[in-house]
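Pasting as-is:
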Amino acid sequence: MSGATYNANGDNGDPGSTEGELNAWKHRPPYRVHDNDPNFHVRYEGSCHCGKIRYQLSREKPLDSKYCHCTTCQKIHGAPFQWAAIFHKDDINFTHGHHDLGWYESSEKTCVHKLPCKVSCAYCRTPIMDEGRNMILLFPTLIDFKTPEDRKNFDISCHMFYPRRVLDIPDGKPKWTGINEQSDLIEDSPQEAVNELKRKRQEEEHEKKQDKK
């Protein structure tokens, strides 16, 4: 839906049709509906605050889950940090609200569906997910967890952009200065994680030197 925008009155202007070229995005992951897919087994259900947007998830555990403390997440979520869970685009099934979605591309500050972008309910403005080029980052606070075990499946593996934190979280999880695996570990990161990172980077440096020979 390149070039589409939503209006400030809470309606993104989409009449709800699924036909035609302008609605082709509704037939592609993550927006493609799995109504007749016997291989899509519903594991979780989630919704925005007003209920116009509803979705299902088929994967028991996210590919990863983490807290992001970057200032963009703090501002957009109006919270100390963002709790994000990574899924494949085919893991989600929107059951309500295709026509009630709004987009925001933060680098250019535009409401165009341009990847990567942030997806929200165009009515109540609840953040739904970040849509990347290959994956989606969902926000577990929107999910209706039925049991404590379900909630535990979404426990985080690490913190990102921890130097920009609003509050300290001494949970013993790895804490990265930026994106995990692409920055440095700091604060109370587990020593084994620090040692493993040091080992990996030494191996990478050794491989680079071997390639130059």
